[in-house]
Specification:
- With 289 residues, this protein is α/β, with parallel strands linked by helices.
- Helix content is 45%, strand content 12%.
- Strands 1, 2, 3, 4, 5, 6, 7 and 8 form an eight-stranded mixed beta sheet that branches.
- Strand 1 (26-32), helix 2 and strand 2 (53-58) form a beta-alpha-beta unit.
- Helix 8 packs across helix 9 (218-225), helix 8 crosses helix 11 and helix 10 (234-244) crosses helix 11 (256-268).
- The chain is elongated.
- The structure holds guanosine-5'-triphosphate and magnesium ion (MG).
- It holds the Pfam family MMR_HSR1.
- Its main location: cytoplasm.
- Required for a late step of 50S ribosomal subunit assembly. Has GTPase activity.
- Residues 14-178 form the CP-type G domain.
């Protein structure tokens, strides 16, 4: 699937993040735990430069737990701290505070040694659309007693949210668009809801999803649809699922578009369980090749 964002849009978003960079001590890079690599903005390193960073794998409740652990290790092996959380239910939030303090410990100690009074850590969330930035901000702000007012020396309109005593979070996240030359990345982003359905070819997405399930989770596919493989003639598979789920048009034929929508919706609604689309071992192999 090839989807193009407007380059102007992307440049503007990038500029907004760059402008706020100097206000914060640390970046919370939010990624989708179901696709920890594919949901990153490929320019992220250039955008945030040397700023300390914590990678937050959000929506961990929807992802394959074994893979999530592997991905955390992958990022940490690369020298970047990473934690997994569920913003919707507020799970793992204390890890964010703990990791942030550890990442900035040296810097804080240096400040204290110079006689500078320690202050709260200032952070900004960045991430692609729909990754859960607003949910995390709301979750963190609910825990806090009050929003802090404008801070002297920074943009007047800038609002900060107090997270416990130790962190202050910028109330507006930075949106970084995903960009992808690899069509599979587009499909992964589409199936997890990072791309508007109006620009998605639903049947193509359903075919990708079924092939993925066949490869990774055939037993769950069996349970849901009564098949453990995708037919070489893809229409046969659509016919089977369509019939099972009663997707007929007014002539009594299988409605392929509705069948496709059902498959994609089933995955998004977790009827096929916790699913990770970025497989670490496979992606590292690809990277190394
Ligand atoms: N299951 C689950 N759903 C989540 C989690 N975090 C966010 N969501 C859902 O993901 C969807 C998108 O969340 P938002 O917080 O609006 O995402 P966003 O990054 O602010 O999106 P934009 O503002 O469009 O850039 C919502 O339906 C949330 O309920 C999570 O940890 N687990
Ligand atoms: Mg939002």
């Amino acid at each position: 699937m090839t989807i193009q964002w407007f380059p102007g849009h992307m440049a503007k978003a990038r500029r907004q993040v760059t402008e706020k960079l100097k206000l914060v001590d640390i970046i919370f890079e939010l990624v989708d735990a179901r696709l920890p690599l594919s949901s990153r903005n490929p320019m992220i390193d250039q955008v945030i430069q040397q700023k300390p960073r914590l990678i937050i794998l959000n929506k961990m409740d929807m992802a394959d737990e074994v893979e999530t652990k592997k991905w955390i290790r992958y990022f940490e092996d690369q020298g970047t701290r990473a934690v997994a959380i569920n913003s919707l239910e507020g799970r793992g939030l204390q890890l964010v505070t703990k990791a942030s303090k550890e990442i900035l410990e040296d810097k804080w100690n240096r400040m204290i040694a110079k006689g500078i009074k320690p202050r709260a850590i200032r952070a900004m969330i960045v991430g692609i659309p729909n990754v859960g930035k607003s949910t995390l901000i709301n979750r963190l702000s609910k825990k806090s007693l009050a929003k802090t007012g404008n801070m002297p020396g920074v943009t007047k309109a800038q609002q900060w949210i107090k997270v416990g005593k130790e962190i202050e979070l910028l109330d507006t996240p930075g949106i970084l668009w995903p960009k992808f030359e690899d069509p599979e990345t587009g499909l992964k982003l589409a199936v997890t809801g990072a791309i508007k359905d109006s620009v998605i070819q639903m049947q193509e997405l359903a075919i990708y999803s079924l092939r993925f399930l066949e490869e990774r989770y055939p037993e769950r596919m069996m349970e849901r649809y009564g098949i453990d493989h995708v037919d070489e003639e893809i229409v046969n598979t659509f016919d089977h699922i369509g019939k099972k789920r009663g997707c007929f048009d007014q002539h009594g034929d299988i409605d392929y578009e509705t069948t496709a929508e059902i498959v994609v919706r089933d995955i998004r609604n977790q009827y096929l369980g916790k699913v990770t689309f970025d497989y670490r071992d496979e992606m590292i192999e690809k990277e190394e090749a």
